[in-house]
Here is the input.
Amino acid sequence: MATESMSPTLHPITQTVSLDENEIEFTAMRAQGSGGQKVNKVSAAIHLRYDIAASSLPDDYKDRLLSLKDKRITKEGIVVIKSQQHRSQEQNRDEAIARLIMLIKSVAVTSKKRVPTKPSKSSVRRRLEAKKRHASKKRMRGKVRG
Here is the structure.
């Protein structure tokens, strides 16, 4: 039987930010869906819970995570990820951690603020002249009055 070391396991998110595995709560449960004889007696699925507010992540990461419209984040600010793809509990645990890391990495990159641009004066002039030409062409197709 392998013994687990009590040293904190850190998963790197960026060069400066890491995810501490001690802040993650794991619960083993039976997987849903069809399976063989083993599926109803082995708790292979993993339920991961991660409290954003109580985590050691930087405040800007926390704010961006809490502002996400993601069904995995509860109103209380807890990320809930369920993994039951694999037959072994360890593989499901690793997959759940990987999905949590991907979620945190998605808010790690900040997008640049968009600077609104203005069309040049010549492009505005060309557009308006083209509109006038088009309008006069349409006007010429109308009924002749006279």
Summary: Helices lie at 59-67, 89-108, 121-140. Residues 1-5 have pLDDT under 50 and may be disordered. The longest helix spans residues 89-108. Residues 130 and 136 are 10 Å apart (CA to CA).
